[in-house]
Write a structure and sequence with these properties.
The protein is an alpha+beta fold and 239 residues long. The protein has four helices and 14 strands.
Length: 239
């Protein structure tokens, strides 16, 4: 199974180096003190297994067409529907929140094709990612994308109680393809996605559903007639 490039340092340090040193210590204790101390070997085994599991990055077939929205993260859907926003997309917008446990893949993927036109790191607290307050109070990376049709979408990488590091592999002006990896959250967190009102959104998931980043269809979108780049508005201008 492939592993994410965003976790190579941790894989080497916590998955190989430190467990290797611990194994030498376990061997010495078991050999010179008492054979029963081999049981301590479960600790380095756990460290290696946990890190290999956490930093996995499976390839997944991309479902649907360009208007099919794929999940930006693995995890459990915590909320779906309209929410009031005050940054990038202001006012009420359709959105989804996804909780990532430490056992989920933590690589984030683009839900639609787009170009990153806004990026802001938000300092904050480290509340449990299931806490309703975490969305506004926790440290986060706020990302605004413009779709090729004009309407925008907004992704938020949010830290949790354990997750303390956000990795972003994009800079403003970079384009992403639907399903493309663009960063990750390390050790338990939350990812949110919101849509410009220029999109008509049909949700395909509900609260409690398990989703896979880049693999689960969470919604389909249509460009509404009041969007500046919709086919309908262009015909009206031409007429």
């Amino acid at each position: 199974m492939p592993f994410t490039k965003y976790g190579l340092r941790e894989l080497f340090l916590f998955g190989l180096l430190i467990p290797g040193v611990l194994w030498v210590g376990v061997w010495a204790l078991a050999w010179f003190v008492h054979p029963a101390l081999w049981a301590v070997g479960v600790i380095p085994l756990f460290l290696t297994g946990f890190n290999l599991n956490f930093f996995r990055d499976p390839d997944r077939p991309l479902p649907g067409d360009e208007f099919t929205v794929v999940s930006p993260a693995d995890g459990t859907v915590t909320d779906v529907g309209e929410k009031e926003l005050s940054e990038y997309l202001e006012g009420k917008h359709q959105g989804i929140g996804i909780f990532l446990s430490v056992f989920d893949v933590h690589v984030n993927r683009a839900p639609l094709d787009g170009t990153l036109e806004y990026s802001r790191h938000q300092d904050g607290e480290y509340l449990d990612a299931r806490d309703p307050e975490c969305s506004t109070l926790n440290e986060a990376q706020n990302l605004g994308f413009k779709s090729k049709w004009g309407p925008r979408f907004y992704v938020r990488q949010i830290t949790g109680l354990i997750a303390r590091r956000i990795v972003l592999g994009l800079k403003e002006g970079d384009a992403v393809k639907r399903g493309e990896r663009f960063g990750m959250l390390k050790f338990g967190s939350r990812t949110e996605l919101y849509f410009d009102n220029g999109f008509e959104v049909e949700w395909k998931v509900k609260v409690g559903d398990k989703v896979k980043g880049g693999g689960t269809v969470i919604a389909t979108v249509k460009v509404t007639s009041n969007s500046p780049k919709s086919p309908e508005s262009e015909e009206a201008v031409t007429a």
